[in-house]
Amino acid sequence: MSSETLGPETPATLVIVGAGPRGTGLVERIAANAPELYAGPGLEIHLVDPHPPGAGRIWRAAQSPLLWMNSHAEDVTMFTDESVEMAGPVRPGPTLHEWAGIDGRTFADRQVQGSYLRWVHEQAVAALPPGITVHHHPARALRVSGPRDGRQLIRLEGRDQPLAADLVVLALGHLDAEPDDEQAGLTAYAAEHGLVHLPPDFTADSDLSALPAGEPVLVRGFGLAFTDLMVLLTEGRGGRYEGDTYLPSGREPVLYVGSRRGVPYHSKIGYDWTGERPPLPRFLGPAETDALLARPGGFDFRRDVWPLVEKELGFAHYHRLFTAHPERTAIAWTDFEEKYEAASEGAEREALVASAVPDPRDRLDLAALDRPLDGVTYGSFEEFQEGLRGYVESDLGRRHDAGHSADLAVFLGLLSVYGQLVRLGNIGPRWHGFFSHLASGPPGPRLRQLLALSRAGVLKFVGADMAVQARDGVFRASSPTVPGVSVEARALVEARLPEPTLRRALDPLLRRLHADGAGETPDGLLRVDRADGRVLDRSGRPHPRRFALGPHTDGRTPGAFTRPRTGGPAFRQNDATARAVLVFLRDLGADAVG
């Protein structure tokens, strides 16, 4: 045990850096587990965050009311339920739509979600047992220091005296980053030639005033950051919609958007689940995850994990197709299930599916879903505009048609898979992009707005594998989707969040943590113990007094909140960390009494 212990009447001290939804979730789990695990003389919890507790930066009140959540209000909860595999007690609570008294199918704006998160924070604090107090410090944490076996010191911006803590948890959320070499070069080029270059950023924080009305703007990125950009530069500049028609204000720029895939993320599904759920996990569950972790030489994601992911998602898809839409299948589900389980990856499984599912549109093709423009070319720029509008319209139609409910089963499969992959730690960036494209796309109404903007000439599509060159005093964009065509502009926007790497994080605490020996993955994430979130050093040794949760770690999850009854990997992590924190502090106090 530690060389430092608490006095018999001295309360323990916990510092949580980050008071957004992840920090709030941790406080909620401390409140839930403390009656069982902590009977010390008291506990002081210090929350360090320049933004108000609960909402944090992303969900703060001070942002445009035009920006929506990306999930239906009924699919957002901060509370545990029986589906979360954890040691602590379930403490149920209302979803966003139940709390706000709004239609569950509403895509609430982010200010409403921020209010919900502030309320959840207040409820979590109120549920703490007597003797546990919470203090908020509206400041940035600059550095954590201290010996492995002693109290930690957290230096705050603008404060002379550091906070002393028995334990520290980093729940930092999404972070800014310094530009990589390419971005730095583009920024320098823009400054030299009087151009505008907006590097990756949280869109609500970007200064978009430099993008002039009526002028072409290249946009690289077609995910959620792009959706926010699209809204702020159209409705945010006075445009409006009448049905499926966009009426410009005249203050909009002309957006030329492309990306690696060249298409927007798939629409959110617009119908409810009915009937039997696929029995998940089936091919990628705890046993398979344990086996991967136990491999003496480690595992390779593409070779060892991805085939299990494909098989699991296929199982979810075909289970739903055969049980809910049997008229579109050629054999009985029991026969297919047996053969599917035994079939090897590749040609054998493809032959089975082809024989059992007559319509190719009912077969799951993950490669086509992920990269629909691979190998596709158009003869002209205008032909591509029409073609991509057709693609988006088709996606919207399918995603709002319960006759294609196998798509929703795949979504449930993706959530199940994510819950297992979190345990594997460093799996590389491919999975997260794939998951976001299929499962974390925009609300259907946003894609209908995109179509209206395209028809109005305010938004134009560039294509897949969009390349940007800085030459001849301008930016130029091109894509193999439309060979021989390029677009010239004096402004370039990188519509994506910064990569959460330790080396390039602008957050000084993480930079110093890295410099002081914290471990990082090959793609730059902070390494943490999969069991409880303790920070690992470069030799893989866990720090007894430092924990980390969130997107800057290799234990990152789909989000700090989740759909009800889907297992909530973040909730499971919060519970494990809260219990480890309470046990450590309890034992520290017991040593003092002893």
From TrEMBL:
Residues 15-174 form the FAD-dependent urate hydroxylase HpyO/Asp monooxygenase CreE-like FAD/NAD(P)-binding domain. Transmembrane segments: none annotated. InterPro entries: FAD/NAD-bd_sf, HpyO/CreE_NAD-binding, L-asp_N-monooxygenase_NS-form. SUPFAM superfamilies: FAD/NAD(P)-binding domain. Residues 535-571 are annotated as: Disordered. PANTHER family: BLR0577 PROTEIN (PTHR40254). This is Adenylate cyclase.
